[in-house]
Design brief:
The chain is of the alpha/beta class. 35% of the residues lie in helices and 17% in strands. The chain has an eight-stranded mixed β-sheet, with helices on both faces. The chain has a two-stranded antiparallel sheet with strand order 1-8. A hairpin with a 2-residue loop joins strand 2 and strand 3. The radius of gyration is 18 Å and the shape is globular. The protein starts with a strand and ends in a 6-residue tail after the last helix.
Length: 286
């Protein structure tokens, strides 16, 4: 981004816990991308949601389990493989930045070892999956879903790496770049990373809900303040920003379920996203 302040990605992006459970959806190929699909009762596609995952990708169990929750709420939910088979392995979850209570138990040497993984693993991956590569894939998938019979409205739900792309989809259709278009009707982004302030937020034109953790090292208090002020200045835009106390990056998807406080924060963020979609992802038939 030429003028905006770009907020980088640290080891926080790879923190969190793996959750238990068995996803109940199915896998199909949509628009050339392998896609996990969670269908609502009755299978209606009228209100469809596209998940834009974090760096652990479409097959990460937490992501699929969460997609199932959206389906139970009545949304036809797609989780595409926007990384095209190149998501980072789940084994890295605890190698980078563990939940806060585990961080307190790490030695200096252990912290140094964890930090060393960031430039060697995450850096090259981010270059490979930069915006010039990933955004056209996401735009194309949105275009494909819009053509699926029975589809009316489309929402985007994004986490971490995918959170930024959910915000970009809330800009609306890209009419300036031939062959792209894309753009959803409603968006929810939890702990987005690599955002540019103000560049990513100025063009937002669709209802947008944001969930931030107050301990997110990728979105410090000053950065959050800039985003809050910028969004507040958009008087005609429906939006909300909720802050989750003592929550680190990844809390809405990779929260530590052994902590009641952390699990509640994840449940509340899930409820935030679903209620936002219920309120603003309304079909023209309703």
């Amino acid at each position: 981004m030429s003028e905006g302040e770009k907020i980088g990605m640290s080891s926080c992006c790879l923190s969190g816990s793996l959750h238990e459970g068995t996803p109940t959806g199915r896998v199909d190929n949509i628009g050339g991308l392998d896609t996990y699909i969670a269908e609502p009762r009755g299978g209606s596609k009228t209100k469809s949601i596209i998940f834009i995952s974090d760096i652990f990708g479409w097959s990460f169990p937490n992501t699929r389990l969460l997609a199932d929750q959206y389906a139970l709420a009545g949304f036809y939910t797609y989780v595409p493989d926007f990384h095209e088979g190149d998501s980072l392995p789940i084994s890295l979850l605890q190698n980078m930045e563990p939940p806060l209570k585990k961080q307190e138990q790490l030695t200096v040497a252990e912290k140094a070892t964890n930090a060393a993984v960031v430039p060697t693993t995450l850096g090259p991956w981010l270059v490979k999956h930069r915006e010039a590569v990933s955004k056209p894939l996401i735009d194309g998938f949105v275009n494909t879903v819009r053509m699926v019979p029975g589809t009316d409205k489309i929402g985007a739900v994004g986490f971490c790496w995918g959170g930024r792309y959910a915000i970009l989809q809330a800009h609306g259709p890209d009419l300036a770049t031939p062959g792209t278009i894309g753009g959803v009707d409603v968006a929810f982004a939890a702990h987005p990373s690599l955002v540019a302030v103000p560049d990513d937020f100025d063009p937002v034109s669709r209802p947008l809900s944001l969930a931030f953790g107050t301990k997110d090292s990728l979105l410090d208090e000053a950065t959050r303040g800039k985003i809050i002020d910028l969004m507040a200045s958009k008087k005609d835009l429906v939006h909300e920003i909720r802050l989750y106390e003592e929550q680190v990056h990844g809390f809405a998807l990779r929260s530590d379920w052994s902590s009641e406080k952390d699990k509640k924060a994840m449940d509340d963020a899930t409820r935030q996203g679903i209620e936002w979609m219920e309120k603003y992802l309304k079909s023209g038939k309703e």
